[in-house]
Design brief:
CATH topology of the largest domain: Tetracycline Repressor, domain 2
Low-confidence stretches: none
Distance between the termini: 58 Å
Largest sheet: none
Number of domains: 2
CATH superfamily of the largest domain: Tetracycline Repressor, domain 2
Number of strands: 0
Order of helices and strands: HHHHHHHHHHH
Radius of gyration: 20 Å
CATH class of the largest domain: Mainly Alpha
Length: about 210
Amino acid sequence: MEGPPDVRRRDAARTRQRLLDVAGRHFAAHGYDGTSVRAIAAEAGVAPNLITRYFGGKAELFAAATTVDLRVPAVLAGEPHELGARIAARVVQRWESADAADPLLMMMRSAGSSPSVAQALGTFFAVQASRPLAEHLTAVHGCTPEDAWSRAMSVGALIMGVVTGRYVMPSGPLAAADRASLTAWLADRLQRVLDGPPAPPLVPSSAGGG
């Protein structure tokens, strides 16, 4: 017989936290691809379907168990003409200090072969980075919401290109550059995106068109 609602809520909260604790250890030890949902459930002493119930799936569990704070608001504060430099410095510092067990690095390496990881990663960056930047550009820089979101997406695409070319699949000048020149280069590119004229709109493709 089930207990009262408050007891069930406490039990559910404890179960969820136990899954997060176990999952965090497994992902750190084995990486995303090497971690089994069944192994996590077995160690936590629950049925595997509880992971789907509480989190939705492996990718969502990974995101919840490896929470990363990009500390975007701290980067946004300051002079507008130095915003690109602040973002660049934070990006390079964060990724230069990342190791093989870094949650975002593991997700990026798995995103190419797992649509669910790619979706979870996209949601993470939209919530943690693009949305705060777009809101800042609207409130402080006077951009329209549409233009602010376009610039935030462009900033995100540029950063992801640098991260991929230097840390995920190292190749070419991005991989070979020293830290100082990479930071200066990225700062310049980002500031051009932030200060330049609005980009042309992205138009969705027509249904069934190519």
